[in-house]
Specification:
With 544 residues, the chain is of the alpha/beta class. 32% of the residues lie in helices and 23% in strands. Helix 3 packs across helix 4. It is globular and about 65 Å long.
Length: 544
């Protein structure tokens, strides 16, 4: 393997930036608590992997997890993958940890192409979650039920997720550009009790109706007791959607109208209670239904969003994603930091590929996330936002979905902004999180992902599962458990039915080791280069 030929990094954090970061405060906390002298990211990473119990307990303590009960035990059966359990005695609610803030500051910004702009305060977000929660409870939604969203990336989608998970229901979502069969392949397996759907969506200046698709879908989901229609397109055009053909459907406003806002009630549940069901891409057969645990997703996201991405309460965090990609779920967890989450639905190519940068200037993005493919498309388009936009607040750009080519790094630093931390991420729907992540303490080298994520025992392995030296290509494997390992795959309505498939997907290659299927190499800088899938099942969008 030839590493990028460069003697100097593209970016290096200032001493002031490091000192102001959550991760440096975490390092100092760990040193004080455990009598250590960890000095840099690598020493912190080494400690986090060697001392998993202490590390994940420190993440819990420093990020202020809200829980009815934590318990003394942090990790059981650490030598079993699958089978290891984190915080087995904890009782908490996922939504409660995302709704810690309740004031008049902005919780959500939303742009729907050139058509719609909205903002939602934390106080209004609480109110709307409360009203929908009351409706869901009235329909008999209880812990373990499933609430599905066939929705664009709207504030109502966020409200639906929070209301569902506040009750202990499991939330699952699909993008409105999926066809009826694609959605049925997913929701038909997960059997939702309630469907939240949208009358249509906008893309590249065009309007697309989803009402016929919803009617066909509802007719093939016998588990449904209620369908709620959000009039996104209708409101933008001043027209009321015609929903008579959709069995059991009711408009969003009509659902909420009978209920006055109250204090949101949060059902405390075990750490391993299912919070999300995500789906593989289905390129090699029917989509796999991947069930994720509430506490595990929360804790892993706290480590990533707080420590790796350095998200603070005053930040405005954007990621270009649909509700059918795991980055939507990842983005939602930024609410846990009290940050403003910035939503966008539609084409990123409007206004000659500049609409996302217009949005960034309008609300002051501090973090801008997108796919590697979009960054590469911007480079080919020739636009230079550093000449046309201020981007004053922007300090972190996040890239994922597929490996970002070295030329993509060049484009960001030459045409977008020179003083920005470009964090290329790698993980998956499988863990709804990252193995390789960003770091505000580390430099950015051309073509390289910055660092292994804290707490993740990642090695580059040969065909026998043995570690390879820096510079040699091999398999990405993780040799120790982590909190966001999925509960399993849902098959025929149960995790038991999917147990064998789950084991074969990740753990059959090497005993007690997570085999991820990425072909990677570690560099002399401590970063990583990802060459693609070793199992050849990655689709063009970067999602299995």
């Amino acid at each position: 393997m030839s590493e990028p030929a460069q003697d100097q990094p593209l970016w290096r954090p200032s001493a002031q930036r490091i000192a102001a970061s959550h991760i440096d405060a975490f390092r100092l906390w760990v040193n004080a608590r455990h009598g250590l002298q960890l000095q840099d990211y690598q020493s912190l990473l080494d400690w986090s992997v060697a001392e998993q119990v202490k590390f994940w307990d420190a993440v819990w303590e420093t990020s202020g997890v809200v829980a009815q009960h934590k318990g003394e035990r942090v990790l059981l059966d650490a030598d079993r993958m699958p089978g290891a359990r984190f915080f087995p005695d904890a009782q908490l609610n996922f939504a409660q940890n995302l709704l810690r803030r309740n004031d008049d500051a902005i919780a959500l910004h939303f742009w729907g192409e050139d058509r719609v702009q909205r903002s939602v305060s934390w106080r209004l977000l609480h109110a709307e979650v409360s009203r929908l929660q009351q409706a869901l409870r009235g329909w008999g939604v209880v812990p373990g039920d499933r609430v599905a969203a066939y929705m664009p990336n709207l504030p109502e989608t966020v409200i639906a997720m929070l209301a569902a998970t506040s009750l202990g229901a499991t939330f699952t979502s699909a993008s409105p550009d999926f066809g009826t069969q694609g959605v049925l392949d997913r929701f038909g397996q997960t059997q939702p009790k309630v469907l939240i759907a949208c009358d249509g969506y906008f893309y590249n200046g065009k309007t697309f109706s989803n009402l016929d698709k919803i009617a066909a879908l509802v007719g093939q989901l016998p588990s449904l007791v209620k369908t709620v229609i959000v009039p996104y397109v209708g409101q933008a055009s001043g027209q009321t959607p015609e929903i008579a053909a959709i069995v059991g459907a009711q408009m969003w406003d009509d659902v909420l109208r009978p209920f006055a806002p109250q204090t949101v009630q949060f059902t405390a549940l075990p750490f391993d209670h299912p919070v999300y069901i995500l789906y593989s891409s289905g390129t090699t057969g029917a989509p796999k239904c991947i069930v994720h645990r509430a506490g595990g997703v929360l804790l892993k996201h706290l480590a990533e969003l707080r420590l790796q991405a350095d998200i603070h309460a005053e930040d405005r965090v954007f990621f270009f994603t649909t509700c059918g990609w795991m980055m939507w779920n990842w983005l939602m967890s930024a609410l846990s930091q009290g940050a403003t989450v910035c939503l966008y639905d539609g084409s990123p190519g409007l206004r000659d590929n500049s609409i996302l940068f217009d949005y960034a200037d309008a609300v002051g993005f501090t973090h801008l996330g997108t796919s590697a493919k979009f960054i590469e498309a911007l480079g080919k388009s020739g636009i230079a936002p550093r000449q046309t936009h201020q981007l004053t607040c922007l300090r972190t750009i996040l890239s994922t979905g597929s490996p970002l080519a070295p030329e993509g790094f060049d484009y960001i630093y030459s045409k977008v902004k020179s003083d920005v931390c470009l964090s290329s991420l790698s993980g998956g729907t499988d863990l709804v999180a990252c193995f390789i992540a960003g770091s505000p303490m580390n430099p950015v080298w051309r073509g390289e992902l910055q660092a292994c994520a804290l707490g993740m025992a990642v090695i580059v392995a040969d065909d026998d599962g043995k570690p390879l030296p820096d510079g040699q290509k091999g398999e990405l494997v993780c040799t120790k458990p982590f909190p966001s390992m999925p509960l399993g795959f849902l098959v025929d309505g149960s995790l038991e039915g999917g147990a064998q498939k789950y084991f074969e997907t990740y753990f059959a290659q090497f005993p007690n080791v997570w085999w991820h299927g990425d072909f990677i190499a570690r560099t002399s800088h401590g970063g990583y280069i990802i060459f693609g899938r070793s199992d050849a099942t990655l689709n063009p969008g970067g999602v299995r």
